[in-house]
Amino acid sequence: MSEAKDWAGETEQHVLDEAVRLAPASGWSRQTVVAAAAAAGLSEPEAELLLPHGARDLAALLSRRHDEKALAALSLQDPSTLKIRERIRAGVVARLDAARADEAAVRRWAGFLSLPLNLPLALRLVWESADHIWRWAGDTATDENHYSKRAILSGILITCLAIDMASGREAALAHLDRSIDNVMAFEKWKAGIKPAELARDVAGALGKMRYR
Question: Residue 185 gets which letter from DSSP?
């Protein structure tokens, strides 16, 4: 069983490598999935078994790869030596760096996830990214703060990604610093962002990432 899991995980990453190479020209689509799988040595039926949800599965794999890269970079820092605002800033910057390495593919990824049918996946993925950052930062909240912190950081993170790709890192960091200033009072975090507002912000940011 472990060998099968290892094969599946390694093959997924191989297909993802090919998809990242192909997506800037062909988009994040079934066509890209089939071509990437073929380049990785898989037949179409094998690709469907490995990635039953096609481009959605690859979109999730890319986001989680970037999360892993961000966490690997963050592992070189000791969060206990930083103030909480510095931890969150470091986490967002690490996530921006990870996405920037695949910028051309991420633009097409963003366009795919901005489609109404894919927005629930986009929300789940950005929530996962925010959760990773908060956990690295040492957050142990289990009450409503657990959710409000992640909701707010999700909105900040996706907006910073969009600004980074549209206007550059300096503009993204300026927005990040302003956002952290606005939410460091935790009563404001509790008030939080409503689910509908988060969905709107994520959809808008994904569109900006694609179209600058």
Answer: S
Q: How far apart are CA 153 and CA 131, in angstroms?
A: 9
Report the candidate in 168, 176, 63 with the shortest Cα–Cα distance to residue 113: 63
Question: What region, left, alpha or beta, does residue 135 occupy, with left being phi > 0 and alpha being psi -120 to 50 degrees?
Answer: alpha
Rounded percentage of the chain residues whose pLDDT exceeds 70: 83
Which tokens in the block code for residue 124? 């789940």
Structure tokens, 133: 């950052």
Q: Does residue 146 register a pLDDT over 90?
A: no
Percent of the chain at pLDDT exceeding 90? 70
pLDDT (0 to 100) of residue 186: 46
- Other Cβ atoms within 10 Å of 3 Cβ, number: 7
Measured between alpha carbons, how far is 57 from 6 in angstroms, rounded to an integer? 17
Tokens (6 digits) for 17: 């490598």
